[in-house]
Every structure is written in C-alpha cells, then in structure tokens.
Amino acid sequence: MALNRSMHPRNRYKDRPPDFAYLASKYPEFQQHVQTNLAGGVMLNFKDPEAVRALTCTLLKEDFGLSIEIPLERLIPTVPLRLNYIHWVEDLIGSRGDGEAQRRGIDIGTGASCIYPLLGATMNDWHFLATEVDDICYNYAKKNVEQNNLSDLIKVVKVPQKTLLMDALKEESSIIYDFCMCNPPFFANQLEAQGVNSRNSRRPPPSSVNTGGVTEIMAEGGELEFVKRIIHDSLQLKRRLRWYSCMLGKKCSLTPLKEELRKQGVPKVTHTEFCQGRTMRWALAWSFYEDVLVPSPPSKKRKMEKVRKPLTFSILQPTIRELQIKASACDSSQNSIVQAVAAWLENTLSDLKVLHKRVPSGASELSLFLTAAENTWIHVRQKRREHARQVPRAPPGAVTAPGAQSPQTHTAVCSAETAGQYSGNGQQSGGARGDEPDSGRDVAMESAPEQEAASSVKEEAPSAQEVDPSTVQPTTPGTPPHFLFKCLLNVKPEAVGVLVEMHWVEGQNKDQMNQLCTYLKNAVLRTVTKPQ
C-alpha cells in the first residue's frame, strides 16, 4: 500500500501503514489474497477486486470494529482516503463544546459501504442522513448500518434519481445540519471513465481495478455539473447547512466551481487536497454563515522539496549465512551480518566500477557513499543475455549435468532482471500523481497502490545520516567530472535479516539508481544459488 507523508496529520495511516503480514495472520479471508515475494514482503494485487474488497473490510474491522459487506459490482472505497475527508470535515465544523447539540451531517450518495456515516458515527458520534438512489447500494447500506448497531445514529433513505439535497430535506424541515459531504460521479460518459478523454497520455495506466455501478461513476456533465447542482440547491437551502462540501477527482474542476461560488456571492469558500500515495483528490467547501472558522487552503508556496523515500530491499537470514561463509573464507573479521552484506556489496560495486567509500554511520549499521559514472550494470545484463543466446539448446532427451543451468533457465533469469524498474518496496518506480482519478471514483489505493504494494516497508523514510556530496569524495581514481548519480547506501539489521537502503543524493536520473538497486537485489540471490 503506497501512502503519503502529506496525508491529513490525524490520519492513523500517515505514520503507520497497514501491516499486511499481521492482517493476513489474523484474518483468513484476507490471507487468501496476499502473496509473499522473494524478499519476504507481503504483497496484494490491487487489480483484483476481491483483494481490494478484502483489504477494505479487514481495515475497517481491525481499526474501527466495523463489519461490512460490499458487492463486487459496486464501488469499493479505500479507507485512508475516506479518513482524510472525515478529518477535514472535523476541521470545518470544529470540536463540539459542552452543551452543544449533536453534530449532524448528510452523505449524498452513501454507496453500498455507507463508509462515511459508519466512520463518522463510530469516531465522533455524528448523526447522519445517508441518501442513495441505487437499489443495490441502498439495501447494502441499510444492512451495514444495522449489523453494526448504528441505526440510532445513521438514517439511510432511498431517494429518486437526480435527487441531491432539496428533495431529501423536505421531511427534515426543522433540522439544521452541520455539514454535507459527497463523492460525485467523476465521469461524464463511458469513454471518459475508460480514460480515453480524461487521462493524460503520458500517465501510466491505472494501478487499481475499476469497480462501481453506473450511477456511482458517471453522471450527465461529470463531476463539474454534478457539483454545480449541489451549489444550486445550497443557494436555496443556504443556512440549513453550516458547511457544504464535495470531493473532486479532477483538479481542473476546482477553478470553475470556485468561480461559480464567487458569482453567486457565497461569502465563505475554501478547498483542500487529499494526498495518499500517488492518488490525489481535491475537496471544495462553502458556507453562508459569517461566523464559521475557515480552514486555510493549501499554500501555493508550499514546500516543494519532498522527503524522498529510499529504495530498499531485504536480505533474509538464509542468504546472509551464505554470504557470511564466503566472507569469512576471505576475511575472518567479517563476522556480523551487516559486515558480511556490506563486504559483498563492496565487492559487487567494485566489479561494476561504481566508486564507493565508507562514511560515518550509526552503531549498528554501515554506510557507503556511491558515485556512479557509467551504467555498467546494464552492460553486465546485456552480456549475459548475449551469452544465453549463444549457448546451444540441448537436444531432445539430453540430460543436464547436476547443478548446471540450462539456457532456458538462464534466459529466464535475465528476463526477470530486466522486467521493469521496481523500487525495493515492491512498487513500480516512475509516474507522477495526476489530476484525474486513476480508476472509478476512487479505487486506487491512496494508491494505490502501484501494481502490487508490499506492506512490510515502513511508510516514513528512515532518517539517513546527512551527507554533503560536496564534502564526501569517493575513493580513487576520484570523482569523475560527469556522473550519473550519487547516493548513500545504508546496511542495517532488521528482524528478518538485513535491510539495504539507497538514498538519492543528486544526479541526472533517479531511474539509474532504481536499476542499480534492482541489479543488486537480483545479484545477491544469484550469488547464493550459484553452484559451487
């Protein structure tokens, strides 16, 4: 699961991403959807709707005590994103003082999960009026409320198609609500839902499966017209709600909607960003009350320098024992697991002609400062592939000598090395957050998850020792005048073995460091499996 340091500060997943291994050990229905990679990380296929549903249901059960059911043919919400919205609404309406009435909110189009009312009622004792136009979603929403014993706080109502606020509040004429919230259908038509008209051609394809019924992901005019209809209703209801709010899937929708509110003379308007992984959402809120406190929108001059997460991979204990045996045969001083791994890395980097030098580090770890002048690891792979093509195929029926590697096996190893550039946490590198939804209204795990996300990696980038590249110089023959990149490589112990981190310092292209990380990760596996 890819999460983001820019999530709402109160979001429980900001600093503690879900532990897939722990969840799999506790919940059998979740365990059947996880896989373990070669590095020992637990991964989930976010293109499998059943896996996404299992994750959502498991997180709600583990962290909030909620048991829900969601049909596969309806929208499967992602928990961290929904929490971001809930926390922002908390910022809008403020804390309830002693003697104040219970907070009341409206969820427009609550969906089968009824997730906003369930979270709001469980976390804050909020009362909710949850509306829904789809029969299947309505029935599931009522069932989810009832089976969590929250019927006294949440009222689910079935409303006619295209009903937003006006008709839904006809029977609630005496109640003043504190807020409304809504996930509008993002798309105007089927082509846009498939990304034909709305998705930048330079962006990678969506990393999560697209679920959701027609009424959930599509509406006439898309989200822009949908929210304009809510604005039109708010102009008639005005002070019946203290805050009106909507979540947006496209950044380009924000400016015209703010302009519409300005034209209508709405006195209080604000917006925010919801950041989770590579998925971005935007939210807009407005009020006709002069006395409300307006949270400041994200600053246009916000700090652009983001803390880069290191590329990481783990070396497990059985592999380390093999490295220790080989290291002790050459140097009896290389006893510790960190020293054995570091010695192997130094030998491999020397073979690749990557300049490196040990720099001060913590007591239990070891750090190397790397300067790569040439992409030699690509050359090694190319030579291996050329060699594999030159090795003649064994005739039918021929017996391969014990321990020998067949040409087909060798080629498969080469193919595995060159298949995509992945960072050590199991996510595919590259690609930027876009202004449009990845798939459906929000199925990318605060995404999304990338293709498969390893939960074993901690979200926060470990605090690497600060190294000034201008003061730390690699060993002879000296730093070349032109280099591909410089990075800090940390080797530190962890519960399952040793963790290798590569922290970007500077250079031409971070993809080069991704490639070297992938090469080292594959090379250590080849080293211990190579016949003696």
TrEMBL record:
S-adenosyl-L-methionine binds at R82, G109, E132, N183. InterPro entries: METTL16/PsiM, METTL16/RlmF, SAM-dependent_MTases_sf. Residues 383-478 are annotated as: Disordered. Residues 433-444 have a biased composition (Basic and acidic residues). One of its GO terms (molecular function) is U6 snRNA (adenine-(43)-N(6))-methyltransferase activity. It is found in: Cytoplasm; Nucleus. Its EC number is 2.1.1.-. GO terms for cellular component: cytoplasm; nucleus. It holds the Pfam family Methyltransf_10. Belongs to the methyltransferase superfamily. METTL16/RlmF family. This is U6 small nuclear RNA (adenine-(43)-N(6))-methyltransferase. It comes from Denticeps clupeoides (denticle herring).
